Structure formats: C-alpha cells, structure tokens
Amino acid sequence: MSRDAMFTLSFFKNNEPKNNGNGDSHMIDLRGVDKYYQSAAGDYHALKSIDLCIQAGEFVSIIGKSGSGKSTLLNMIAGIDRPTTGEVWVNDTAVHNMDENQMAIWRGTNLGIIFQFFQLLPALNLLQNVILPMDLAGKYSPRERRQRAEHLLELVGLSEHQHKLPSMISGGQQQRAAVARALANDPPILIADEPTGNLDSKTAESVFSLFNDLVAQGKTVIIVTHDSGLAKRTHRTALIADGEIVNEYLAKALPTLTPAQLLSATHKVKAREYEAGAMILTEGRDNDQFYIVSKGTVEVVLPRPNQSDVVILQLGPGKYFGEIAFFHNSKTNASVRASESGPVEVLAIRYDQLNELLNESEVTREALSQAADRHQQENIEFREEKV
Questions:
Q1: What is the Cα–Cα distance from 360 to 260, expressed in whole angstroms?
Q2: What residues form DSSP beta bridges with 307?
Q3: β-pairing, 28-39 with 189-193?
Q4: What pLDDT, on the 0 to 100 scale, is given for residue 21?
Q5: CA proximity to 339, closest of 367, 316, 362, 369
Q6: Cα 344–358–367 angle (5° rounding)?
Q7: Alpha carbon of 36 to those of 97, 153, 263, 354: distances in Å?
Q8: Which of 357, 87, 91, 47 is nearest to 222 (CA)?
Q9: Quick count: other Cβ atoms within 10 Å of Cβ 330?
Q10: Are residues 175 and 157 in contact, defined by beta-carbon separation less than 8 angstroms?
C-alpha cells in the first residue's frame, strides 16, 4: 500500500463521526455551518448557522428563492465548497477537514452528483460517460464496468441509445444519462441541483419517479428545486431563506406564510421537550402559547365523569394545538399530553408573537380561525355524546 493510501485510510479512521446525542449517527449532519464570500462590497454571508440532519434513505428537497443559499448548501454537502466555520459530516466522514485529493477519492465512492445542465462529456458516447467514473475510481474490472454501465442505462431507459453522443439525444434523455452516470460507483447518496428545471413536465415526472425508485432501494436523495409542488412529494422539505433554514415543522403547520414570515417565526419559536405521558396543557387552565409538534406524538384528551379520560385525537409532527384558546378565550378546552409511546418535542410561540405574525398574513389568520372553530365544535359534540 502506498504512503498516500495509508494516510488517506488513517485520515478517515481518525475523524470519527458526530452523533445526534442518541448514539446513532446521521447520513448527513451539518452543524453550525456559516459561509462567507468576499466581494468588493465586503463579506457576503451566504449561509448562516445552518444545522441540518438527514437520515439514510430519506428523500429531501431544498427550496428557496434565487440567491437564498440553496445551491451553496448543496455544495457544502458535496464538498464542492467549504464552510467558513462549522462542520460537515457526510456518511461518517468529516468533509470539512479533507484536502482536495482526499475529497476526490471520497467523493468518487460516496456521492453521485447530478447537475442542472447534465455536464456529460460531449466527445464520449453515453456508455463511455457512465463508465468514466468507474475508471477514475478504479472500481470493478473493465468487463464489470461495461456490464454495469449497460445495466444502468437500461435502468433509466436508454439501452438503445448507449452508443450515441449526448448531442444526439434529447435534454430529458441526457438528464437520465446523468442519473445513470451518478449511480456508476453505487454511491449511498445522490444530490441533484435543479434536476428537472430544464425538462418538460412528462420527462420531469419520469426523472422524479426514478428518484423515488432509488430511495425505495435505500439511496439517500437530495434535490435542489424551485418547484414547490415537486418538493411536497419528497419526504422532507428544507426551505432556505436569506441563508437560513426555516423550521420545517413550522412551515408544514403554517404553509400560507411567506418564506420571510416563516423565517421570522423560526427565530421566535422555542423548542420544549416532554417525557412520555407528561402533561403539556391542562383543560380549564390559562394558556398563552401556540404549539407545533416537531417530534413524537401528542394526545388530545377529554375527561369523562366517573370514568378514565379518553384520547380523542393524536397529533404528529407538523400538527398544532392551542389555537382554540387563542381565538376563543385564554383557557384550554382540552388537555394535551405527550404520548405514552415516547418523548415529545414541541415548538412554542407566545400568543402576542403569534398575533404579530398573523397581522402580516390575513390568510393564515383565517385558516387558523377556521381550524379553531372546527375543533371547538368537535369538542362540544364529543362531550354531548358522552353525557
């Protein structure tokens, strides 16, 4: 083994992954990542204290306006760019500590990158484009490389075009060829920057379906997209605004808020943790906060005379409670507790702060008001049934 190879193996061994505090590591873990770019006008703060964890097998979309920082965030994960401060851990490797040579070796087997404009080599046919990453990484025998490339092109529906140059096929076919190339070395992670941005709707759908198939096979897929409809079909969506990630559960609970309003709300909410079975709100007591479930499950409980309390509703991540007391009175109309199945985390925002937020979004105020009326009526009807 060469000295360089020994150093590389030693580097990976000695840079142990961070974990999430529960003893298990994430496939991707960004911690306190800041990125500054220097310009004639001064330092530009592109990413601001980014914390992002992605588990193996997740399909995650990153959305945001042009210039919000979404492509910069993707480049951090891919090691194409480096954080000014903070840590980037990908597949148990400290990406932020690697030099360019180490990065090239690591990236060749851990990441498949799909670019918006395909980046296929124009002088090579599709088969040669897919074989190339295996040649560079030294993976598989020459015969196996060809067989694997043929299989991957068949997977993306391009077997009959394998000997054609990229210029001889359509944009959608080039994108599918780029997916095949990204899969060449069987990486656990695929990242794609606007993979459907230059495709017609039918071709975009076929590419998206291919991503879903890969996730079903255990791949971790991350896409940057401007298409919010497409993003809603992934497992999770990370909305980035002005270089910061909006709380995803806040965005799920209050989808009618603008990115700027969601970012403002993200700064105001406070995370609270409750053990399994712990009471969060008690019926009849004053309440001054609105809650969004971010981890675990909460139970909405109503008492029954001379009988045990009954659970009328369970709320998971992205669901909310406390809106009835906000719109009707300050006292809670039901008790809410953490499920007995495990601990719960909720995001709490004071009613005065919620009111300020709703003053900026009448459509959100109306949506919450209607939900409060509906839930209030459901509580009344349930009580009448049990009398």
A1: 11
A2: 304
A3: unpaired
A4: 40
A5: 316
A6: 75
A7: 17, 40, 20, 32
A8: 91
A9: 11
A10: no
CA separation for the pair 352, 103 (Å, rounded) = 49
What letter represents residue 32's amino acid?
G
Identity at 257, one-letter amino acid code:
L
Identify the burial level of 129 via C-beta atoms within 10 angstroms of its C-beta, where 0-12 means exposed, 13-18 middle and 19 or more buried.
buried
Residues 56 and 188 sit within 8 Å (Cβ to Cβ): yes
pTM of the complete model = 0.80
Q: Which two structure tokens, joined as six digits, stand for 10?
A: 């030693």
Least Cα distance to 69 among 215, 232, 263 occurs for 263
Tokens for 20? 């999430």
Amino acid at 244: E
Which tokens is 103 given? 């990065």
247-291 per-position pLDDT tens digit: 999 999 999 999 999 999 999 999 999 999 999 999 888 899 999
298/162 Cα distance (integer angstroms)? 53
Write out the two tokens for 44.
Answer: 């530009």
